[in-house]
Prior knowledge:
Blueprint (H helix, E strand, L loop, with lengths): L1 H4 L3 H6 L1 E4 L2 E5 H8 L3 H10 L9 E3 L2 H11 L14 E3 L1 H11 L2 H56 L13 H15 L1
Antiparallel strand pairs: 1-2, 2-4, 3-4
Helix pairs in contact: 3-4, 6-7
Amino acid sequence: MNDLIAVSDEWIAQRIYVIRNKKVMLDRDLADLYGVETKRLKEAVRRNASRFPEDFMFEMEGRELEQWRRGNVDSPEDKKGLRYPPFCFTGQGVTMLSCILNSERAIQVNILIIRVFVRFRELLSGNQEILLMVERIEKQLSRHDTEINAIMEALKMLLMPPASPRVRIGFSKEKERTSGKADTQLSL
């Protein structure tokens, strides 16, 4: 357990990736933690394949591996063990892995990893509440924007009346001429 104390939650958290919209750890990182070769870890998983359904563990596809490499592999040292697509273990898969490895170290590592996964879930649930609040605020603002736009349009209509011709009220020279002729005809 003394060498496990050196493994921090941050180290574990940095090795949790999102692949296929699932938070997973790769076989090579878990092999390092458990103190076994990646090859031996994969052998143990294959011998116990029935314990690892798709939601516990899956193997990366070629395109996923290339995409993951581009985003996460910086140095040639990081490329070690990446000749074959790695196994990706979810939180439940990590728990099952400690069952098949059956060593004291595997149990202690499993406890550390599960605690990190649980902390992630707690953070995500807190973030979900914040996202819902932001969404509600955005809806209110968009409704307010619609109302403000309607008010602005009404103000524009009041400040700049339409340019349609208006009917003049009152006397004009034309009316005087026509009204004078009419009066003369009546008087005859």
